[in-house]
Amino acid sequence: MVARELTKLHEEILRGAVVEVRETLAGRASVRGEIVLLFVPAAEAVREGKAVSIAAEVRELMQSQGLDEKDALKQVARARGMGKSEAYRELQRERGK
How many domains would you assign to the chain? Predict the structure, then answer.
């Protein structure tokens, strides 16, 4: 995870595999501001050798436990150790919005 300008107007959080985050940042003309890098074991968001998206986890909880999207997203965020708003932004990014 790369967190840039935390608690500031232009706060940005990029999550994903190191290769994905690097590609995102490499596509920019410059990257400015205070940056924090956070690395976690890949096993936390991996099932059967494949990365699991937030959207997939939300769908799974909605189907298996009958939760609405908001409650499912809260559970996924808690399980991944992230805030609800951060999880929502990631969900929207995965959906291409």
Answer: 2
8 Å CB contact between 15 and 89: no
| 46 and 32, same domain (yes or no) | no
Residue-wise pLDDT for 64-96, tens only, equals: 999 999 999 999 888 888 888 988 988 998 888
Our CA angle for 62, 40, 56, nearest 5°, is 20
Same domain, 53 and 14: no
Are residue 56 and residue 90 in the same domain, yes or no?
Answer: yes
**Percent of the chain at pLDDT exceeding 90:** 38
* Domain, as residue range, for 11: 1-39
How far is the C-alpha of 59 from the C-alpha of 73, rounded, in Å?
A: 9
- Nearest residue to 53 via CA among 90, 27, 25: 90
